[in-house]
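Entry: Exodeoxyribonuclease III
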Amino acid sequence: MKIATYNVNGIKARLPRLLEWLEETKPDVACLQELKSSDETFPEADIRAAGYGAIWHGQKGFNGVAILARGDDPIERLRGLPDDPDDTHSRYLEAEVDGVVIASIYLPNGNPQPGPKFDYKLKWFDRLMDRAALLLEEEKPTVLAGDYNVVPTDDDIWSPRGLQGDALVQPESRAAFRRFSAQGWTDALNARHPNEKLWTFWDYQMNAWPRDAGFRIDHLMLSAEAADRLGDAGVDRDYRGREKASDHAPTWITLRP
């Protein structure tokens, strides 16, 4: 079973690239983030024509997450994180596909920091950890996939100094990611490539892609039951270099039966 996460940075603007990637790599499940599309304008017909069922949690112009399943419809379990009724951002969607629990996650960016956006990022992460703890109690193979907007360590970025003031690398952000991992979640890409520098994001500015000045913020976190089935993991980095591409590259894992 191949499960991927892909921040598309606007599903309508990147639809040709998304459909191209689905056709060429054929993931069984694709978790999408940053749709920037309302529920009503999500391109369901195009996705279904490509052979995928879908559920989505949209928001006009901002955020938005979706889960696609090849030849099937994901069974929705949860839309949005609980415990904050005033949170109107579309950032979390949870489903089940072929016995695997899968969530598509778009964690807040948090910039500028310090400030209310950074505070919101950390509080949202706390709410994610509350949900993640409940998922672990189910003892099912579970994959929490998405754009976490956290660079876990200095080894996950081309130049730590170049991003030192960014919310993605602040001690509080990294500490939250460590606490989350310590619950019992395996960072799949790091588990399969512990000594490699693999980026998943390259900014549109400062010639970042040609210089390979990227960093890793897209993660697939696995419960013990999923980690026991982990086959391979990787980044489809070539898709970042295509015309009118997202600034993220698809990141994926395979799970053995």
